[in-house]
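Whiteboard transcription, Tuesday session. T.W. wrote the structure tokens on the left side:
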């Protein structure tokens, strides 16, 4: 009680001195410690395993599509051979076609309502999950948007071999209701099987009045949905092909391996790096490790646990203790095991003590 009264007196008469006592006193150190602890915990939880606190409200999306006055745009797009540029074509399409496509899209969206949403991972997700990533994660995303802004709608024949994907964009009518835009992307694959001569449609004027569903391959399937700066990934392959992620992943993997090599955690590192960058699955895994912000340097502190894991799992990996602990790379089939060590994929069940491997961690 006396402490409380003296503190109150100090506030009224010695405000400057009180601040100093609060900053350097034992109680203040405790407060600062608690604040720092929870801040650190927040940052760790945010970055742990590369997870991001994101979720897309599919119910909100469905509600907007069912209740708002809508405007539609349609784009066919191709990836240009040089650089990261795209070219898009935007035909005018009849209202009946838009209505049918919207109906198919709503059917698909409603099947996704009960699926668990998780952060996007280049190596995939578990069955029954759908992945979410931020638009900013995709380096080529802005290039695609720019191609839509410059889209041509003049009469032309479209070469099947050039078309990479189509996009059905839905927004509110100008001045009507809540402002929003949702893009639905579908990679083009079926067209090529139907017409080998290279032409699948001819637009008279600038309007496509009818759709032969079998010919154009439109269905209720959706590969990607873009809404509120997030991408819902329903097809990994489509995301990689549309945005040419192999190039982005390779660059990320190369940078991660360069940082990793500076620590000399793997012996014969140049051979290890060269082999890693030849294999797309290895590149995806390295990209995942980069996204997770795995710090190879901290693994030196876990060398006893790593040696025990190698022994318990009977891994075909040798190591040396001097001058610095490192794993000895000798052949390609070791790479997956080295990745699993770095990513802590070797687990033991809590009840039956079963040894497991979680490659999707």
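and on the right, the sequence the group agreed on:
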């Amino acid at each position: 009680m006396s402490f409380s009264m003296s503190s109150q007196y100090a506030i009224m008469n010695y405000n400057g001195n009180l601040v100093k006592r609060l900053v350097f006193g034992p109680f203040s150190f405790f407060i600062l410690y608690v604040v720092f602890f929870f801040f650190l915990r927040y940052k760790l939880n945010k970055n742990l395993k590369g997870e991001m606190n994101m979720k897309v409200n599919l119910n909100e999306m469905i509600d907007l599509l069912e209740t708002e006055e809508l405007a539609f745009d349609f784009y066919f797009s191709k990836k240009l051979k040089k650089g990261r540029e795209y070219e898009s074509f935007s035909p005018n399409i009849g209202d009946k076609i838009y209505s049918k496509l919207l109906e198919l899209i709503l059917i698909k969206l409603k099947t996704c309502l009960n699926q668990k949403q998780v952060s996007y991972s280049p190596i995939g997700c578990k069955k029954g999950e759908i992945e979410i990533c931020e638009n900013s994660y995709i380096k080529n995303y802005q290039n695609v948007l720019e191609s839509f802004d410059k889209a041509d709608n003049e009469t032309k024949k479209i070469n099947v071999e050039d078309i990479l994907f189509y996009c059905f964009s839905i927004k509110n009518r100008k001045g009507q209701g809540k402002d929003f835009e949702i893009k639905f992307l579908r990679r083009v694959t079926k067209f090529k099987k139907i017409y080998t001569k290279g032409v699948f449609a001819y637009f008279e004027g600038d309007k496509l009045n009818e759709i032969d569903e079998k010919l154009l391959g439109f269905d209720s399937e959706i590969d990607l949905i873009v809404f509120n700066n997030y991408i819902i990934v329903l097809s990994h392959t489509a995301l990689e092909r549309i945005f040419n992620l192999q190039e982005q992943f390779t660059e990320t993997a190369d940078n991660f391996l360069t940082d990793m090599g500076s620590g000399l955690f793997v012996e014969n590192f140049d051979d290890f790096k060269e082999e890693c960058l030849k294999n797309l699955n290895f590149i995806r895994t390295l990209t995942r490790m980069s996204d997770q912000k795995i710090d190879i340097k901290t693994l030196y502190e876990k060398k006893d646990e790593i040696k025990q894991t190698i022994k318990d799992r009977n891994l075909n990996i040798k190591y040396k203790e001097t001058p610095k602990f490192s794993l000895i790379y000798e052949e390609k089939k070791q790479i997956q095991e080295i990745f699993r060590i770095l990513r802590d994929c070797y687990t033991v069940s809590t009840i039956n003590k079963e040894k497991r491997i979680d490659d999707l961690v």
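Someone added at the bottom: The two ends are 53 Å apart (CA to CA).
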